[in-house]
């Protein structure tokens, strides 16, 4: 055990700065010339979208704490005020880099490729006239200039709205400030007539034709600005009489929340800036001067241009080979999805596998199958035109018992979820809105079906939302299973959503906030005990965030005990790797690719008896203590193989992977002279290979891409003659021999000589090639012998 004080702030990174470090990695992808131009633009747009949310949620929360006089420090030793100052100072150069790269590199690059973003003044006179006519007929009627003077109060500026600040006069020295909101219901990019891919920004077109909107005025200056407001508006749920009314009030209050950031043109005059700061209550630190466009999010529109030469090949999610209809499939096509799940667990991996062909098909079947008695689902986020919701409505129409948990407090999705609640209730479906003090973050569904041998439970436990849109861009996993223990556990969880209490006794699932923290802590400590005893000890975890100080402390202690730990953490990570004597056995990786890495996978080697889990929870305090989360074991060997492939290929990625240094900075892993290994490209290829192969696993594991040796099943540890193992000689013991028809005895190692070899490994002395073409590693000859007999006899 380490004798260090693990509460010392020096061992913890700051949560907010760690998230900004992730946004910097997103920005770096937008500035990486290895990415095609439109792909770079997509990352620049994501950087804007992500940082908008960061300021609304995280910076807004810090400002709320400052205003409340909070001085309590975080585990890294910073007060809210200190964090606020550091966050603003860290973010400022990132916005400057985004603007500079766009202006000096990407915008000219796109222009060279025929995609131009122009100002009206750069266009020929004929195009300018055509655009002026378009402005007068289609844009001008939608604009409302709002003056600020003794007769007019300062106008309300809505969150994330883009505006023009106009200074004008009637010929004298006195200036009038006028705000013109850029209409959000008009396209931001306006196509120039007769030009295939030439555009002007609507704010530039409005500025160019202000004489039509503000006639007979002397326009002294026109500057663009954008306001970001705090999204951390909360009500006390304990005293709220109605959760729906409370959420509606929060949505309304958010519109008028405190301003946390003001972005302005770099050359905005002091007169306009002073008015905005005074009227919006903005500190100098909260003002960000921007060159070029202030908002890049609308540039997502350009990504859809028909220019395959400027972006990666489009990816279409594939059918799962066990569920898709393939010409080469010899199965009985009348077989239901429930028969297939009962035959064996199915692991869906989005966006590699189609959401519609897996999860949606599961819910559709539940809605229409006459033997289904009940359908239950927990919805955190879903699409605005959700087919998932429609399936639940259809199920109710078909006489099924339907219960739906809709989390009304899902941030930024409250309004959408409220609308679904009302529609579900109008259909007579029982809807639970959430629980006091907790968010429901599980991604779970349960189907109860009457069968010949009794009532069967079918479950889906996922890492991502029931959202067909994000399933095309988020990398997520979902387990479809007929495991009765998991079904009973899910029954308890759904009973909690509608009942008074959450049971703390579960057969297989790890459920937050009642059992998950305790079980994860036990498993980390167990690895440390194995390491101290000289047994196999390894932890590999893939999550979105590692923020919980207690889990960080447990990982430090495990590392100090000798456990080898790989953490694939997409964004927030408080843990400092590489501290001598403490975290030198921990490596923190982060992958930033075309798909958002969102799946959570947990691997514990457990002395050679491995355990694998997937689920909805990150190692964040909110997930472990303040949300209802579900994590499921994955026990099927073939599915573990797929999880192993995902983790091991991720750890050898040399294109999208970053490795954290002990100071919290990240370094990109370079391929140098080695072949490029992009984990997401590898998984796309593995999925296509599985589809070509026909009925079977969801992906074909390429063992040549795997350098590590995570276990998918128990390793036999029986001791044998050490001298023969060290020499590499094979003894022909009686129990290893087979009797041939001619009466001769030969060793199984001789009979299957093409299926085993002695690997170049410090850990394993034997390797067996399986019938499926994979490899299994063993420390002992006895383990290899038994595997050869299992595989080939």
From TrEMBL:
Residues of the active site: 441
Keyword Phosphoprotein: yes
Xref: SUPFAM superfamilies: Phospholipase D/nuclease, PHP14-like, PPK N-terminal domain-like
Catalytic activity of the protein: [phosphate](n) + ATP = [phosphate](n+1) + ADP
Entry superkingdom: Archaea
Every Polyphosphate kinase N-terminal domain range: 12-117
Domain Polyphosphate kinase C-terminal: 336-500, 509-674
Positions contributing to ATP binding: 50, 474, 570, 598
Keywords, comma-separated and alphabetical: ATP-binding, Kinase, Magnesium, Metal-binding, Nucleotide-binding, Phosphoprotein, Transferase
Pfam families: PP_kinase, PP_kinase_C, PP_kinase_C_1, PP_kinase_N
Post-translational modification, as annotated: An intermediate of this reaction is the autophosphorylated ppk in which a phosphate is covalently linked to a histidine residue through a N-P bond.
Family recorded in the similarity comment: Belongs to the polyphosphate kinase 1 (PPK1) family.
HAMAP family: Polyphosphate_kinase
Name of protein: Polyphosphate kinase
Organism: Halorubrum ezzemoulense (Halorubrum chaoviator)
Gene: ppk1
